[in-house]
Description:
By secondary structure, the chain is mainly alpha-helical. Helix content is 73%, strand content 0%. The radius of gyration is 28 Å and the shape is flat. It starts with a helix and ends with a helix.
Amino acid sequence: MEKVWEFYKGGAWVEYFLIVSTVLFIVVAFILYLMIVRSRNSNIRKEKLTIEYTILIEKILFALIFEDTSLAALKENQDFSRLIEDGFFREVLTESVISLHKNYEGIYARKLEQFYKESGLIQDSFKKLRNPNWEIKCKGITEVAEMNITRVFSSILTVSKAQNKTLKITALNACIKLGGVKGITHLTEHPYPIDDWTQVNIISAFKKHDIGDTEGVEFLLESQNTTVVALGLKLIRELKLTQKLPYVAELAARTHNTIIQYEAQNVLKTLNA
């Protein structure tokens, strides 16, 4: 112990400490530099590949949509046949298909949906749905919802009960697109408050997807969760669901919550004007 104390008092350790610290700093800095360079080179390569792939993808999708070219015929293209197995190419292809699908309706949209299924891109989206990373899961949900894959509705409905707000909103939006009111009726049993931002997103989803069948919205008014009731009232008001006014009037008459009562009366006044 005395030797250690003498060594400490002598101050010789300071020199060793500074040398070791300097070496460690240089090593760490060099490693970080290599990581930055590698990341930058990777991004540059991806950008170049994206441009290259996009040119080919545009030709392929044009032939698919406007020239009635089948997937089998597309696979005769050597570049497409080779690249379709490449993960990054498939990712760029999926993004292009999703983007086009947002801008087309009718037969053109159905052609894209068929290609999405037959090419196996749908399986990539399913993998994203199963991914534990919430950002990747959100991307998968958005993809299958845009392509109207209704068979995953129940799975997305389960995800919509997640605690992660972004994931929850993404899943709820998808449920509304795929199932209309069925995508939110489970909220009647929701035990936690639904914040204003989530409510705004739900209402926006109904407006965006032009949900025609609103049967079941009134069930939200029966919830024990006041924020769910408030959401139901907002939906009725914003979507101008005058056929739901009897349910609103009943709520206004029976509720003991002054805030809900005021909101219900406000909806009645607005839609009866």
